[in-house]
Amino acid sequence: MSTQQSAQTEPNANAGFAPGWYIVAASKDVGARPKPFMLNGLPIVTFRDSNGQSVSLLDRCAHRNAPLSAGRVIGGNIQCHYHGWEFDGAGACKTVPGLCGEPDHPARRVPSFACRDSQGWVWVYSEPDVDPESEPYDIPCADQPGYLTIREHLEMPGPLDAVAENALDVPHTAFVHAGLFRKNADRKPIEVVIRALDGGVEAQFIGEERPKGLVGRLLAPQGGEVFHWDRFLLPCIAQVEYRLSDRSHIITTAALTPRTPTVTDIFATVAVKVPVPNAILRGIFKPVAMRILRQDIEILRRQTEQVKRFGGEEFASTEIDVLGLRIKKLLREASRGKASTAQEERRIKMLV
Questions:
Q1: Which of 43, 216, 232, 242 is buried most deeply by CB count within 10 Å?
Q2: Does 260 fall in a domain?
């Protein structure tokens, strides 16, 4: 294991905002009332049109700047609470009370955002008035037969890149999650293969034994070798996959939505298949998963406060910080409209 360190200073806590699809809410939470949210500091409102489809607009009335989210939905249109102007899901003005004439006019439009219901979530494309060439990410194994699927939404302190690194960072689990995943004692060497993906990066951990913590014992009571991958996919997907036997598989897909430069919403979909009845598994696995997430929230809160206290980030890294700097680079390039730079496959050794 190399002990050589490299320092990096980032002047801004936000490493860059990559355009693309982001989750903004659970599908069940978008209904007859307008639902506001923040996407990278931009106020947006979502609601359902007359066909029951989720739609999203800039949360600002074109007339006098009142928040549309404070209004109501009437016949599939959103009505501003200030003067009663109504807008459809495409942002066109459909009603101006008291106007003797056609209400629709380009100057009265509200910017709209492509919106999709997919796999239990509402996804919004980050750029207004764009017809995206792609569709939202297809979350693997969600709701497939034999899998228990758990969905959770949590507010995480920190910018997207820091939250993504935390989700995919192996070394911290022996300390922040000691006893649940790994322990610092009895580490053994494994090989890590880091490879570029189309718009992302992946780390594959080879030769890893089943974690000795509670999660490992639950997923593979008989022990054995773990097949483990961590992935980041632009613009916002952090994914952890474990296969511990032919009958045990867990894949956690976290869609990260930056609310502000220092607050990130995490919309997690966990698909679990183990030789335990789902009813029992849900009662055991979900409380453990939530405990892990609360521990991550606390360490991210402390990290974010320190970055603010010192006026910026300053990192010293080693090769076992496998994905953090690569995630920053991907986001930085994507925010500038650059395609990700291809990397040759790299192999390193680390102790786990």
A1: 232
A2: yes
